[in-house]
Fold this protein.
Amino acid sequence: GRPLGALRRTHGEVVFTTGMTGYQEVLTDPSFAGQIVVMTYPLIGNYGINRLDVESRRVQVSGFVVREACETPSHWLSEQTLHQYLEAAGVPGITGVDTRALTRRLRSRGVLMGALTADETPEQALRRLRDLPRYDAVNFVADVTARAPYEWEPGGGPHVVVLDLGVKFNIMRSLQDLGCRVTAVPAGTAAEEILALRPDGVVMSPGPGDPAHLDTVAEAARRLAGRTPILGICLGHQVLGRVFGAGTYKLKFGHRGVNHPVQDVRTGRVYITSQNHGYAVDPDGLRDGMEVRFLSLNDGTVEGLVHPERGILTIQYHSEASPGPWDNRYIFSEFLALVTERRRG
């Protein structure tokens, strides 16, 4: 391959994601922290980089792997090339790679730790990689969460507090579009501090890494359950599953892409979803009224839970998906229905 972006060493868990568009959202998605991301679509960067399609305050991936990086993007909003964007962010990448062969390897072997380097032999890089911590051993949420509470934008309506485990901006945009006032708080915020903000509902956001590292977050969720409506998305869903007795386990190569079919087991309806996760909920230990609501039609894994009495709804996929699909934005409206019901009650 050839250099793309910053010319420096990096390492991370090598994963692949599908989708013809959305590479800027992928780069800035905190759920990709600690990972080297392989794009399966062969041409990346063709519509450039703009200020609108960011999902966090910085590029979050550890590295980026593409078949071909477009050097002359064509879009009226474009301000930079992909190379310029990665270089300015200090993030290395590589282009000219047979991403189809690499994806096939990851599907057959499972995700692997990998390194990008420009000043070592392959043998030197491999020796260095063996001495570095594995992805599973690191609490990446501590790195990507907000450092202090902040209000998304001034507004009225129901007050929703987002527990930031690696929140994507489009979650807060989506809530604001539905008339909510949104406050984000760091992942370590205790339940009593959240309740002191007088929320009408709480969203536990997506984020990176193994939910087993998040005992403090789980304790806050345990104390919030039943006291305010809760929506858990992706990592938030996994934490809530653990609170209600479920285990979590690592998938062989995860679900990352924009075309994953999910079924609502209550109605039988199938939705096409955007997904980005490497862990899943084991439903066998679920207790205290928590039920499975959504299942993956690809592998049967749990894609969402519901607790009707306590006003808790969780999804493993991304209702806030940007650039799409938008089929699942109804989840936010369903959550707000729980908020409205609780406010009236």
User: Anything to note?
Assistant: The chain has a mean pLDDT of 96. The radius of gyration is 20 Å. Residues 67 and 81 are 16 Å apart (CA to CA).
